[in-house]
Write a structure and sequence with these properties.
Blueprint lengths: L1 H20 L10 H18 L1 H6 L3 H10 L5 H9 L8 H23 L6 E4 L11 E10 L2 E12 L6 E8 L2 E2 H16 L1 H12 L10
Antiparallel strand pairs: 1-2, 2-3, 3-4, 4-5
Helix pairs in contact: 1-2, 1-4, 1-6, 4-6, 5-6, 5-7, 6-8, 7-8
């Protein structure tokens, strides 16, 4: 299960890094399918073109993720979903500290996984009609790898009710949500030691140097 999620998070990073690559071009964010398909076209060209520099200095991946990825991810919504019931009764200060730690943890996690990139390819689900009342849509993605079986994922995007724009916030693999998994993993610590304690643990994890690994 750990290896599976490792590869799935890699797929998530590769896809969302496509959103990063599209930061300098005009992308239609009014439709989740269009958004995912448009950014996927530039994702791998960017990753491949920067591989030499990023392999030489993997810490630069943090910069790529923070400056280019995060604008397309609803980090606050994801963080609050992880907090779950612990969000109730928390103070504004606790939420701010956890949000900062969660963001740094995401940046480090995505950057670490991106150090393992080889030559994976993606096939994005073609656009479908969406009811104007829908706020959450899952876009299917197939991960094609020459050395592994094809993996199907569903990336969940949420519509901003004020702007009408869509943002990624979760990934579901084999019926399992990564956010739900993290919520389950940290719920005990949150209940016993509190938000600040878990935030400190996340910051400590985020500050660990990135490590390069030979592709498997």
């Amino acid at each position: 299960m750990i290896k599976l999620f490792k590869h799935l998070v890699l797929a998530s990073c590769l896809l969302i890094t496509g959103l990063a690559s599209a930061a300098t071009v005009t992308v239609d964010r009014s439709n989740p399918y269009t958004l995912m398909n448009e950014v996927a076209k530039v994702a791998f060209n960017r990753i491949k073109s920067e591989q030499v520099a990023l392999q030489a200095d993997p810490e630069q991946l943090r910069v790529v993720v923070e400056e280019e990825l995060l604008p397309y991810v609803n980090v606050k919504y994801a963080a609050y979903k992880v907090l779950g019931r612990n969000l109730r009764g928390s103070t504004e200060g606790e939420r701010e500290i956890f949000l900062k730690a969660f963001k740094d943890y995401l940046v480090a996690s995505y950057a670490q996984v991106l150090t393992q990139y080889t030559d994976q390819k993606l096939e994005i689900e073609k656009p479908k009609a969406i009811d104007s009342k829908r706020k959450v849509v899952a876009v299917g993605v197939d991960i094609l790898d020459a050395t592994r079986p094809t993996i199907h994922l569903d990336f969940k995007l949420r519509k901003n009710s004020k702007t009408g724009e869509w943002y990624a916030f979760d990934m579901v693999a084999e019926g399992v949500s990564l956010l739900d998994t993290k919520q389950s993993e940290w719920s005990g610590e949150l209940a016993k030691k509190g938000i600040i304690s878990v935030a400190k643990q996340l910051e400590a994890l985020a500050q660990q140097p990135l490590k390069t690994e030979a592709p498997k």
